[in-house]
């Protein structure tokens, strides 16, 4: 599982934030991300390929997409979501289940 190190000495610098609604017959955009982006799914679902993997987001899900990831829709579907684009380059840490359990119990 991928985690992000976000410095606590200052707030992250926001580039863009807002909400979007994709009608059932439309697709999300295809792009390569030029910044880190957080999505919060308000309703519906969003089915994407990002970073070479399928990312299926449903109502209530939050996902952070890394800068430089190629993103494309896998299917059309109604979705309402909020997004935040960050200027910051966050350091990522990949942890398996054992490391997560060890970190939480410490």
Task: Note down, in words, how this protein is organized.
By secondary structure, the chain is mostly beta strands. Helices cover about 10% and strands about 55% of the residues. A hairpin with a 2-residue loop joins strand 4 and strand 5 (about 55-60). It is globular. The chain starts with a strand and ends with a helix. The model has no long low-confidence stretch (mean pLDDT about 85).
State the helicity in percent bands. Answer: under 10%
- What is the rounded distance between the termini? 18 Å
| Class per helix and strand makeup | mainly beta
Major sheet summary line: 7 strands, antiparallel
Q: Could you provide a short overview of the structure?
A:
This protein is mainly β and 106 residues long. 8% of the residues lie in helices and 53% in strands.
How is the topology of this model organized?
Elements: E1 2-5, E2 14-22, E3 31-32, E4 36-50, E5 53-58, E6 62-65, E7 70-73, E8 79-86, E9 91-94, H1 97-105
Antiparallel strand pairs: 1-9, 2-8, 3-7, 4-5, 4-6, 4-7, 4-8
Task: Name the features.
two-stranded antiparallel sheet, 7-stranded antiparallel β-sheet, globular, 9 strands, 106 residues, mainly beta
């Amino acid at each position: 599982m991928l985690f992000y190190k976000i410095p606590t000495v200052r707030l992250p610098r926001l580039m863009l934030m807002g909400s979007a609604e994709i009608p059932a017959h439309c697709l999300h955009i295809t792009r390569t991300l030029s910044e880190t982006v957080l999505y919060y799914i308000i309703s519906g679902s969003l089915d994407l390929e990002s970073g070479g993997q399928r990312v299926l987001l449903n109502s209530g899900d939050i996902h952070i997409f890394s800068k430089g990831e190629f993103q494309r829709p896998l299917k059309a579907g109604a979705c309402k979501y909020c997004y935040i684009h960050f200027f910051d380059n966050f350091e990522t840490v990949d942890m398996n289940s054992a490391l997560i359990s060890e970190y939480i119990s410490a």
